[in-house]
Design a protein that fits this description.
With about 400 residues, the protein is an alpha/beta fold. About 35% of the residues lie in helices and about 20% in strands.
């Protein structure tokens, strides 16, 4: 393997020259099997692979993530999918291995944000996972290996220009990392904090009960946050992230943004959504966008304009505000992780609206008492991890 890889350009076309290299002269731990990765592709790939490697170590399950602009749009482990999940992720027609299930979950949680993503896989990519990747709009994938059949599928994608990267699973970076900003060199120790179930043992709330599934989901949320641009929070359920709010200046805006995504994920499971009479041959991206509009307040405008006729064989029954509210009230058991402490109880108020019953956050705010009191009001179990997870 070479120790340097030239790139077409950096973050933007005017940023030249661009390359990645090993400063100590050693070989790069990545091999390009197909396509030509860009600067942002590699940022997504390397951050994403760290995330899935840690998810696999923490849970023992195959893991996948979908990255866009250096933050995950989704992350998941390879648990079996329910029939409803297969339907909302559009994979009911495909055989699913554990790795394929992880990818379907990671890609399906926020399909609009995942459009044009870079996927990362914890395990050798099999043909079933490659078949799912092959039909999505995506920039590339990174994995520790590929079966012959999987590689044959992926190297034909986009007429052979699809980016396929293989990473050495034995590679371990140096304990100190560097980056330059405005010509000034920054140096810090790598964030090697290991996220495990014992982090959630301190529970200052009246309700101290968390199920095994919630503890698993909190681990998934916190590992996801470790590689998400801060401020960030992550809602998780059923072995996957269902709403990620990345890069916001205020904590409550993170909670609102991620909560809205989690609500959208749950509303997509409403029987009316599952029964939408789409016309044959509609593009997957158009179907995704149409579902999001159908769920939103904009749907009345679409009905008024008659635009629904290009998407459906018959005029769908609207999903009313009352129906959405009633459906969301059945949403429960959701886990929420935060990369830093909650400064106010309004964060908990918003989380409660999206069915959160278990929270993990560092603690340490001067208003911890108010945050705990708000949790107690709703019977939410909250853990103090004493570990901040900022990532920039």
């Amino acid at each position: 393997m070479p120790n340097e890889l030239s790139l077409k350009y950096g973050c933007n076309p005017n940023q030249k020259p661009a390359r990645v290299f090993m400063p100590d002269g050693s070989d790069l731990p990545i091999t390009v099997l197909s396509g030509r990765p860009g600067y942002i592709n590699l940022l997504d790939a390397l951050n994403g692979y760290q995330l899935v490697r840690e998810l696999k170590e923490a849970t023992g399950l195959p893991a996948a993530t979908s990255f866009k602009h250096v933050s995950p749009a989704g992350a998941a482990v390879g648990l079996p999918l329910t029939d409803v999940e297969k339907a909302i992720y559009f994979v009911a027609d495909k055989p699913l291995t554990p790795l394929a299930s992880a990818y379907a979950r990671a890609r399906g949680a926020d399909r609009m944000s995942s459009y044009g993503d870079f996927a990362s896989l914890s395990d050798v990519c099999d043909a079933e996972t490659a078949a799912l990747i092959n039909r999505e709009v995506s920039d590339g994938v990174i994995a520790p290996g590929y079966t012959e059949e999987a590689l044959a599928i992926l190297t034909k994608k986009r007429n052979g220009t699809y980016c396929v990267l293989q990473i050495d699973p034995e590679y371990r970076p140096a304990p100190v990392e560097n980056k330059d900003v405005y010509g000034i060199r920054f140096e810090q120790g790598r964030n090697e904090l290991k996220i495990e179930a014992s982090m959630f043992d301190e529970r200052p709330t009246e309700n101290k009960t968390m199920t095994e599934d919630q503890v698993r989901d909190l681990m998934i949320a916190m590992i996801t946050l470790k590689y998400t641009q801060s401020n960030s929070v992550c809602y998780a359920a059923g072995g996957q992230a269902i709403g990620i709010g990345a890069g916001q200046q205020s904590r409550v805006h993170c909670v609102r943004l991620a909560g809205n995504k989690a609500d959208n994920w749950y509303l997509r499971q409403h029987p009316k959504v599952l029964a939408l009479p789409f016309v044959k041959g509609i593009r997957r991206a158009d179907r995704d966008n149409t579902i999001d509009v159908y769920i939103s307040e904009e749907w009345e405008d679409v009905l008024r304009d008659g635009a629904w006729q290009t998407m459906f064989t018959e005029r769908p029954e609207p999903l009313t505000r009352e129906e959405k509210k009633a459906w969301l009230e059945t949403m429960t058991g959701i886990a929420l992780g935060s990369d830093a402490f909650f400064p106010f109880g309004d964060n908990i108020e918003r989380a409660h609206k999206s069915g959160v019953t278990a929270i993990a956050q560092p603690g340490g705010s001067i208003r911890d008492d108010h945050v705990i009191e708000t949790c107690n009001r709703y019977g939410i179990a909250m853990a103090f991890t004493h570990a901040r997870l900022f990532h920039h």
